[in-house]
Structure formats: C-alpha cells, structure tokens
C-alpha cells in the first residue's frame, strides 16, 4: 500500500492544452504502470498514484496544496460501491475537487453537465473519449474562471448509482441543494 509519486515522461501523442498543464491528479489504481496514468501524464498532469483507497483519501485530505482531480479506476476497489465509499470519505473530510471514474460497469462515457458530478468512463474507453472526459471535467479551468480545486467539486453526499440509457451514473449532490 501507500502513495507512490511517479513521474511520467510525455510522449507527445496528445497535445498538452494550457488549461490542463500541471493539473495535480491523485490516481487510485491497481495498475501503477497502466494506461490511465500514462494518459494523464501525456496531458501534462502531475500524477500521484496510490494502490490503496484509504491511503489515497488520506493523502488528498492531508495535502496542503489541494489536488485538482481525483481519478479512480473503480474495478480494483469494489467497482461503483468502492467509488461511493471513496467519494463519501472525501466528502466527510470536506475535500472539494473534480472526479473521474473508470470502470467496466460503465457501458458508455458519461460527461454530465453538472460541475459537481463525476465523469464516468468505461474501462476500455478510447483515447479520444478519455481526452474528452478529461477536458470536460476541467472545463472551468479552460473557461478561465480561475477557480481552484478548493472551490470547485463536490461537497455533498453520494446519492445514487443508477442506470440511465444503459449508463451507470454516479450522482453527487451539494449540501446546499445545488446539483
């Protein structure tokens, strides 16, 4: 267990966008050298990886600078139920950040309009769809709103994992009633 900090060398396959350069990502994965970490690094992200759910959550909550994005490869950690556990723990610790979930339980990519709702991607998602999800979850940075990870994200409770049009979607709600 424990948090491993890894440096990935950008291969140039994906063009780094200004709004994604230097994004701090906590990646919860059972595959430290896997495709998700490589993709995130190719986008110019600073990726910290963990193979333990409690360590990842603890690192996020204890980090003084704040992560911009939490990416969880759910299948190695109990699937959607594991994602709900991780998100509930982050909410309980008052973490506020963007979330991407990757799982074989998702049939198709879901890019929800709500800023406080997780982007959900199938395990076998294409590079293009992964990039769309990454850009979508960071769209407030692209818009130049200047909001930090401490101001954007989820602050409520995980309410449901349901099916909609063949897609399992995890919905997060804010305590103040905004979705």
Tell me roughly what share of residues is in helical segments: 25-40%
Gap between N and C termini: 34 Å
Strand order of the largest sheet: 1-3-2-4-5-6
From the alpha carbons, calculate the radius of gyration and give it in angstroms. 15 Å
CA-based shape? globular
Helix-strand category: alpha/beta
What's the average pLDDT?
75
Largest sheet: 6 strands, mixed
What is the string of SSEs from the N terminus onward? EEHEHEHEEHHEE
- Total strands: 8
Oligomer: single chain
> Helix segment count?
5
Strand content: 15-25%
Low-confidence stretches: 6-14, 145-179
How do you describe this structure in short?
This protein is an alpha/beta fold and 179 residues long. It is built from 5 helices and 8 strands; from the N terminus they run E-E-H-E-H-E-H-E-E-H-H-E-E.
Describe the structure.
By secondary structure, the protein is an alpha/beta fold. Helices cover 26% and strands 24% of the residues. The chain contains 5 helices and 8 strands. It has helices spanning 35-42, 53-62, 79-92, 127-137, 139-142; strands spanning 3-5, 24-28, 46-50, 69-73, 98-103, 119-122, 157-164, 167-173. Strands 1-3-2-4-5-6 form a 6-stranded mixed sheet, with helices on both faces. Strands 7-8 form a two-stranded antiparallel ribbon.
